[in-house]
Fold this sequence. Notes:
The structure holds two protein chains of two kinds. By secondary structure, chain A is α/β, with parallel strands linked by helices.
Amino acid sequence: MKRVAYYKGCLASLSAKELDTSTQALAPRVGLELVELESVTCCGAGDIHEAEPDYYLHLNARILAYAEATGSDTLLTVCNVCTLNLRQANFMLQGDANLLDRVNENLKSVGVPAYTGSVDVRHLLWEIAEGDGYELLKTAAHKGLKGLKVAPFYGCQILRPSKIMGFEDPDRPWSLERIIEACGGVAIDYPAKIKCCGFPIIQAREETAMGELIQPVEQALEAGADVMVTPCPLCHLSLDAWQQKLEAATGRSFKLPVLHLAQLVGVAAGIEESELKFKRHIVDPRPALERLEV
Amino acid sequence: MQVALKVWRYDAATGDRALREYEIDAPEEATLLDCLDIVKDKVDGTLAYRKSCRMMICGSCGMRMDGAAVLACKTRMYDVAQAGHVPVISAMGNLPIIRDLVVDMDPFWDKFKAMKPYLQPGYERPEDGREYRVTQERMNAVKKEALCINCGCCVSECNAMESDPEFLGPQALAKGFRFVGDPRDGATVERLEQYSGEHGIWECTRCFFCNERCPKGVDPRDAIAKLGAEAVKNGIDRDMGAKHAKWFIRSTETTGWLRETELVPKTQGVVSSVKQMKFAMNLIKHNKAGLAFPPHVAADVGEARKLHRLVHEQGRLGAAGHIQGERALAKLEHGHHDGGDPYGPGSFPKPYLPED
């Protein structure tokens, strides 16, 4: 078992609780022991980074410090946006001793342990796409997906900027496809899989966001997808919940079920519905899964 | 070496469009631009593309290779040819195509001009009548943005602009920060007011394609974030995007986690939120929204509150908060590790390449 500090972020704590429960259920089967962080806050979701960057850096440094205090060298994330925010702050601190000193002084003055820079921030996707996690995944996914056609949707902030993410080629990523195939599904290809779902501006500029959101939904269905999978709960929220607005705006019916990564693998691993909690989705994935007797 | 290319040919006058394949012999050090020159000289003189300096300075030869915007003169072809890959070359995105690989740059320059991309001096004449001086450190604030060569590679891939062509976009906004961050410019507040309009700063969707594609390391998305920080610092925060961001700050100070249910009224105002009622009810039905009782409060959230107060006292507000991290981030290089690609080094496995 690899012991990792687990940062679930806002959505898995609140509107996407199903992401948390399915991650907790899946983790031991792919060799991860989760140490949940209690004294942590939101990473700022890119919003605090934009509006008050110095506060963003301190908030994320605090999360990194508490992760380091668990004794683990890995901070596990389940959200693209958390991953980017934490990795970026981590590189800022690791790459500039003066900045790290200043932030640590501030952390210590409010009672937070100092951060030495020893933690690596990694998304669940990366943990199970290669290495030991991938080997265990192949065994864990014993029930398979019976050829379910799955559209991988990466979203932006797990791929770009590549100098901060650095796991795979941002223009031709492979991790989700590899996992889908290891689970017995068929990965379908479509151009918008690496593009934006519109979520960051879905409240401030809904129309622009919807123009982005329709692309993956439309293209995945045209390519024959039964379901879509994403490693990001923010992408999930726009793809799943805002799909009804897309339908209202276009007068078309999409009904594309969207699964969190841990849920898709969870289905293949035979994890119970009580942990996967599909009833919390706006577009219910169960009919698509039942139709294929998955 | 033998280089094969597929090029999207297009004639706006007739609407004819065709994917043509060319095979040429090129020196091993050849760039994509060199290869196009050879095609034009020896195979097909009708091929149209822009070029000038051939050394990544003029910004003329932006185009797409396998769907990604590049400067043709910066792109070496050796590895591609060795792998036996035949790349698809096409015109940049988000701009109308005139012919083959040539796009109409007028919409690009219109946005560029709208930023008032010239210094509006805001300094006093030195009393001794001698030279005007500014420290290197203060000029470093706009070092990255000043590198822009106006090639359009960022604009080509901008996801927000694809959806709303009126969005000012990464190039224009990065140029905007080049002046907002310039210590000699005196129009900061006016600029921030203008750039905070409907199609400005807060319409950026944070897809980071611009940072990824920029051949000069400008990182336009980061420049947009600097503008956002300067706008908030200067109290120019009426836009829903700014209100959205401020609610995240408030949330971290109070419960630690985002107070999701209040985010919509705090961003859009109460009247707009009421219009969202039907949508919200459906979310509530699926436990996607609603007030949490008891509220989900992070342990030791007082520490975050104190940190917020502390960093305000230290005064590193606005773009300075971004710039302080640039030295460390500059050490990172674009790219990715090679170990994980299951299709093997040099493979071109699954990029999505439209064939029509």
